[in-house]
Design brief:
With about 375 residues, this protein is of the alpha+beta class. Helix content is about 25%, strand content about 35%.
């Protein structure tokens, strides 16, 4: 069942539409991400869910109730802000119990709930500390515990991991996803970080210039983007312009300036025709050393295998993987990612080395031009 329904919502600041006619529904118990670059409208939409902004047009319902005219403190939601907003003069326990105290909960019940929240966020024994005695990750847990203490129907998170360093941010992704699964309430998170959204969310709404451009699971966003913007925003991608040349039951060909004729699987092609773009993920490209002869194993290759010659221009070693920038004979530069399965993998290739790049017909996404 949907716990949040956004119906034709727009928000104008003067002549500027920060959110432009957005409609979506969020299911109960879902970890939902609003994803997009700065200025895409995702934070404004979250603030309207929280009640800090009022829609210029449209309707928002939460838990079956129209939110028009409902104050933030009367909504069945709670918010964790980007800066955590914990009170520096209060102890951890007093921070967590603050909202419960305002609601008139008795001292004994409040103390019990605070202990429950401390255990939930793995801060047992730290209730007497002040926030400045905690690490960044611990302060974030305090903010989460305070928001969850009132047992809201929906938890709103505004860039919850952005203030953490890279390693702690990665660790907290798993902790936050695990916490959401444990408490079972709906999480709605705003982020500009694609990795965060893909790692934690069950579904993502990608926004651009105030509009909702695609709503899908993380895997579908990555594998089946519906536009050049989504393909380019989600992860790394090689974008190649082309024109549909042949569309037969047993063969589809895309004519491109830099790659020649490219085989495309019909399931990938869909209904896209005319001028189009191929979105080819770097990890879907196989790279092999190139000698003076034809590509190796081409006679035994499956029908629809695409192969082009190139030369390695740059190598970036990133530990678990290496990223290669390969320049084709036509001047186009393509990115290739190879996992480093052993500690010597990065030594397999060198800069200026001639290589073959190959990918299967079903590897690229085909997008309208």
């Amino acid at each position: 069942m949907s716990i949040i329904a956004v119906e034709g919502v727009s928000k104008f600041f003067g002549p500027v539409a920060a959110v432009d006619d957005v409609s979506l529904s969020i299911e109960e118990g879902e970890f939902f991400a609003l994803l997009g670059p700065s200025g895409s409208g995702k934070t404004t939409l979250l603030r309207m869910l929280a009640g800090f902004e009022t829609p210029s047009e449209g309707r928002i319902t939460i838990d079956g109730q129209d939110m028009a005219g409902i104050a933030p403190n009367r909504r069945p939601v709670n918010t964790v802000f980007q800066s955590y907003a914990v009170f520096p003069h209060m102890s951890v326990a007093d921070n967590i119990g603050y909202g419960l105290k305002l609601d008139g909960m008795g001292r004994a019940e409040r103390a019990s709930r605070v202990e429950e929240m401390l255990a939930l966020v793995q801060l047992e024994g730290l209730g007497g500390r002040k926030p400045d005695q905690l690490s960044g990750g611990q302060r974030q847990r305090v903010a989460l515990a305070r928001a969850l203490a009132k047992r809201p129907r929906v938890l709103l998170l505004d860039e919850p991991l952005s203030a953490l360093d890279a390693k702690l941010r990665e660790a907290m992704r798993f902790e936050l996803a695990s916490l959401q699964h444990q408490v079972g309430i709906t999480f709605v998170m705003v982020t500009h970080d694609q990795d965060e959204a893909l790692a934690m969310a069950t579904r993502c709404a990608v926004m651009e210039r105030g509009r909702l451009v695609q709503l899908a699971t993380p895997s579908d966003l990555y594998e089946f983007p519906n536009s050049r913007f989504v393909a380019d925003f989600i992860g790394s991608v090689n974008m190649i312009e082309g024109v549909l040349k042949t569309d037969k039951p047993d063969e589809a060909l895309i004519a491109t300036q830099h790659l020649g004729d490219v085989f495309i699987d019909h399931a990938v092609l869909g209904n896209v025709g005319g001028t189009l773009w191929l979105a080819l993920r770097p990890e879907k490209i196989e790279m092999r050393p190139r000698g003076d002869g034809p590509p190796p194993q081409m006679e035994d290759a499956p029908a629809g295998l695409n192969t082009v010659p190139g030369r390695i221009d740059h190598i970036a070693y990133l530990g678990s993987e290496s990223v290669f920038e390969v320049e084709l004979e036509t001047g186009l530069k393509m990115r290739v990612i190879r996992p480093n399965l052993t500690r010597w993998d990065q030594e397999d290739f060198a800069e200026e080395q001639p290589v073959w790049l190959s990918w299967h017909a079903c590897a690229p996404a085909v997008l309208a031009g």
